[in-house]
Amino acid sequence: MNISVRTRDIVLSDELEKQIERSIAFAVDRHSSRVTQVSVYLADLNGPRGGVDKLCQITAELKGSIPVLILERGDDLVATVSRAAKRLGYRIGRRVQRVRTVSARGPRTPRIPVETWPAIKKSA
User: Which of 18, 62, 64, 102 has the most neighbouring CB atoms within 10 Å?
Assistant: First the structure.
């Protein structure tokens, strides 16, 4: 599993980057064999004005499924990344469970439109 971190208007120290990678790795650990790539994008929307302006976007590429996208906003960068990582772990688990359930049912039989049903003959 490859984790990449990109930022905009945020100074990313080595310690902060390692902490982010640890949170993502811990949240995804259970399903790490299915995850191929995780991209983390961090942005400071308001700049130095403050407020609820830290954005964390996490995209996880899964084998045999569509990507999982998580968006989280908050005022503290570390807390925002932590919440997003927890949500990511939950979403990946749900996606894996859904794929398992669908594949266990087998292929679906196509529904026959009502117009093609054979006419029911009344016996008189």
Answer: 62
pLDDT tier, 79 (very low <50, low <70, confident <90, very high otherwise): very high
Q: How far is CA 87 from CA 26, 72, 93, 108, 115, in A?
A: 12, 9, 10, 31, 45
The residues spanned by each domain of the chain are 2-106
E strand intervals along 1-124 = 2-8, 35-44, 54-62, 68-74
Contacting residues for 89 by C-beta, under 8 A, at least 6 apart = 27, 28, 30, 31
pTM, two decimals, is 0.77
